[in-house]
Amino acid sequence: MDPVPHRLLGQILTDGGYVTLVQLNEARRRQMQERERRMGEILIEMGYLTPVALARALAIQSSEGRGAPINPGQAGG
């Protein structure tokens, strides 16, 4: 079985309906000004994302990288 391609966090967040493309692009602009900051941290600070939603999205990203299914109860739910 071929490995699943690794999706960027922003794609997971928009595909999952956690944030809109407009919100993501606004956070990207801020990240370009503050390069040392992570996207999830910026989205939370802006009020667009909760820490629980970020944990879920990161768990999805991690499971896709391993090719293993994710148990939603492990994502901080």
Describe the structure.
By secondary structure, the chain is mostly helical. It is 56% helix and 0% strand. It has helices at residues 9-15, 21-33, 39-45, 51-66. The protein starts with 8 loop residues before the first helix and ends in an 11-residue tail after the last helix.
Short description:
This protein has 77 residues and is mainly alpha-helical. It contains 4 helices and no strands.
Question: In DSSP terms, counting alpha (H) and pi (I) runs of 4 or more, how many helices?
Answer: 4
Overall domain count: 1
Question: Which class do the helix and strand fractions yield?
Answer: mainly alpha
What percent of residues are in strands? Answer: under 5%
Unreliable segments of 5+ consecutive residues: 68-77
Explain the layout of strands and helices:
Layout: H1 9-15, H2 21-33, H3 39-45, H4 51-66
List keywords for this structure.
77 residues; mainly alpha; 4 helices; 56% helix; globular; disordered C terminus
